[in-house]
Write a structure and sequence with these properties.
The complex is a heterotrimer of chains A (187), B (102) and C (349).
Chain A lengths: L1 H22 L3 H21 L3 H25 L12 H24 L14 H9 L3 H22 L11 H5 L12
Helix pairs in contact in A: 1-2, 2-3
Chain B lengths: L4 H21 L3 H27 L3 H31 L13
Helix pairs in contact in B: 1-2, 2-3
Chain C lengths: L1 H11 L5 H38 L16 H10 L11 H18 L17 H9 L2 H12 L2 H32 L4 H6 L14 H17 L11 H4 L9 H25 L14 H22 L5 H29 L5
Helix pairs in contact in C: 1-2, 2-3, 2-11, 2-12, 3-11, 4-5, 4-6, 4-11, 6-7, 7-9, 7-13, 9-11, 9-13, 11-12
The chains are: A mainly alpha (187), B mainly alpha (102), C mainly alpha (349).
Chain lengths: 187, 102, 349
């Protein structure tokens, strides 16, 4: 019973904050709402017995990706604080599509008789995951590190200030800030 | 009704639908990326829920961990692109950026 | 938690349901941790002023409370509580009010996995060390929130610097603890402390030369992680007034202040548990474990204060250079070297 209440608490946090991310016209607010969504999802992981994943979610998403997103929002701010109101021509089809997808997934989720086994006591998963990463999943593990390396180098190259000759350097480019200390590689 | 697999799947579906909606309506590139994060999180909730209630092992956790890793890589490159875009065009609205060169 | 729930059972009898016991135990523990955080701020502000005074050949506070100004922090506290609560007109009000709590709760949550004494740990998590680093990684988001919401250039610069610095220094901080995790074979804080029992020679700091280097790197990174001098870029008073909390007053400022000193003590507690044997004394049997732990942690805090008041401040680019080009490679070297050392000495299977 108490576990149910905890679930509904996290679920409410996740979905409400998610709605805020989607509907808020202020992108900075959306970014901070994303933090609460990610926190709620971490809580759901913890409820599902995925302790390692819950902690990883906190480190990587809240400590890394979210900070990157917030930095990006703040660096790319244009003087008008709020985004222009989104037109109905976009909202209506998108809304219909999103609701349709949700309805379909909801029907599948509740209508199917999943082969559920009653889950036992949640055991610590870190060791199991570690062993799996070093045995069965060694190839995806190495591949993921390669992807991260490529992403790191790619991001560093993309973000680098181009050396522009003084004669052709346009004025506004000199004015943009140099994000030299951007912690790009934290992820 | 006690909390079980369908509840978690519903949360996953809700996050997914919200993410889709954000990606279809947002014009700010950073907000688009937030939509992508919502979609990935929705998928991850499903992975972990199935690992708990159907599979019983940690394979789903592993998959979710890889998704998190790829999300990190995606965020780094995506935001670098957004910043480069802002530097070149002075805006991050995806529909105003419709040329390959400045 | 075990000792707390045991105590509660003793007081209220066995009639409590397990859930009520869990909730009341958790609340008691949270209360104790909040008190610990408040005590940190009270004790360490006084200590900080005294250390600063000592290093600058002056007395520091002398008047309030008779002996060497021991009641000065209380007077400061009353002063802070009496201040007007100002929210700037142009501030982003919701975020402005939220951010002190985000920072404070992030700091409070980390205390849950610190083992002060045998059995005295709020939550004996299997992933204790990882959990601590995870919840303290939420702080940069709170700092960015504060800096953005203040709508003030100094605050925003301070927040941007602070977030970049904390996100960067988290990496050497966590990597420096990896060799210990390898040696113990567990992330559980109790297991890490238990493995260091039986005298100073079993502490991880003298386990092998790489672990000693790892401890030094951890210490440096921890100073940067709590934004103190010589790495106090986010609140360089000569450049940025007070950094991200420039606009905060009264109780809201007090939350930042509490979190700052609590974090200072927190990183010292982690270092104590991970490298300095936790509650195990230098020699002999376990004796007054909580006190031993506190003494070690306070000595580390004292060292951090000495460093703060001795060394000049770094520049921002030097700060980032130190992190990414010096400390991260060195911590990776520690992980590698320590692993090889353990393999050669036959500790690792």
């Amino acid at each position: 019973m108490a576990a149910d209440l905890v679930f509904y608490g996290f679920a409410l946090l996740t979905v409400l904050a998610g709605c805020f991310v989607v509907f808020s016209r202020n992108v900075v607010h959306a970014g901070f709402a994303l933090m609460f969504t990610l926190l709620g999802v971490a809580g759901l992981y913890a409820m599902l017995g995925a302790d390692f994943l819950a902690v990883t979610q906190t480190v990587v998403y809240i400590g890394g990706i979210l900070i990157l997103v917030l930095f990006a929002v703040m660096m790319t701010r244009v003087p008008s604080q709020n985004a222009p109101r989104r037109g109905l021509d976009r909202m209506v089809p998108a809304g219909i599509f999103a609701v349709a997808i949700f309805a379909l997934l909801y029907k599948v989720a509740t209508g199917t008789s999943w082969p559920t086994a009653t889950p036992g006591e949640a055991l610590p998963t870190a060791k199991l995951i570690g062993v799996k990463l070093m045995t069965d999943a060694i190839f995806p593990f190495e591949f993921a590190s390669l992807v991260l390396l490529v992403a790191m180098i790619g991001a560093a190259i993309l973000i680098r200030e181009r050396k522009v000759l003084p004669a052709e350097a346009p004025a506004e480019e000199a004015a943009t800030e140099a994000p030299a200390d951007e912690p790009e590689v934290t992820a | 009704m006690t909390v079980g697999l369908p509840h978690f799947l519903t949360i996953g579906a809700a996050l997914f639908a919200l993410g889709i909606f954000a990606m279809m309506t947002r014009r700010n590139a950073v907000a688009l990326l937030m939509g992508v994060e919502l979609i990935l999180n929705g998928a991850n909730v499903n992975f972990v829920a199935f690992a708990r209630y159907v599979d019983g092992g940690v394979d789903g956790h592993l998959m979710a961990a890889f998704v998190i890793v790829l999300a990190a890589a995606e965020a780094a490159v995506g935001l670098a692109i957004v910043l480069a875009m802002f530097r070149n065009f002075g805006t991050v609205h995806v529909d105003t950026v419709n040329r390959l060169k400045r | 938690m075990e000792s707390i729930t045991g105590l509660l059972t003793k007081i209220f009898g066995d009639g409590m349901s397990p859930m009520a016991l869990l909730i009341s135990g958790g609340l008691t523990m949270a209360l104790i941790m909040s008190l610990v955080m408040a005590m940190c701020a009270i004790v360490f502000t006084w200590m900080e002023r005294k250390v600063a005074g000592f290093l600058q050949s002056r007395y520091g506070p002398m008047r309030v409370g008779g002996f060497h100004g021991v009641l000065q922090p209380v007077a400061d506290m009353l002063k802070i509580l009496g201040k007007e609560d100002i929210i700037p007109d142009e501030a982003d009000k919701a975020l402005f009010m939220l951010s002190p709590f985000v920072i404070f709760i992030g700091s409070l949550m980390a205390w849950a996995a610190i083992p002060f004494a045998p059995g005295f740990i709020a939550s004996n998590l299997d992933l204790g060390l990882f959990y601590i680093f995870a919840v303290s990684s939420a702080a940069p988001a709170g700092i960015l929130m504060a800096g953005w919401a203040s709508n003030n250039k100094w605050a925003l610069y301070g927040a941007a610097r602070g977030a970049a610095q904390m996100v960067s220094y988290e990496i050497p901080l966590a990597l420096a603890a990896i060799p210990v995790v390898m040696a113990t074979g567990s992330l559980n804080m109790n297991a890490i402390v238990d493995a260091q029992g039986g005298g100073v020679l079993n502490w991880y700091i003298v386990h092998d030369p790489f672990l000693f280097l790892a401890f030094c790197l951890y210490f440096i990174a921890s100073i940067a992680e709590v934004n103190r001098g010589p790495f106090d870029m986010p609140e360089t008073e000569s450049e940025l007034v007070a950094g991200y909390h420039t606009e905060y007053t009264g109780m809201r400022f007090a939350f930042f202040f509490l979190a700052e000193y609590a974090n200072l003590f927190l990183v010292s507690c982690i270092a104590t548990a991970v490298f300095l044997g936790g509650w195990h004394p230098i020699a002999g049997p376990v004796f007054l474990p909580g006190l031993v732990f506190l003494i070690k942690a306070v000595i580390l805090v004292f060292l951090q204060m000495l460093v703060r008041w001795t060394l000049p401040r770094l520049r921002v680019d030097q700060l980032m250079h130190t992190c990414w080009k010096v400390m991260v490679p060195l911590t990776l070297l520690c992980v590698l070297g320590s692993g090889i050392w353990m393999m050669v000495s036959g500790e690792l299977l």
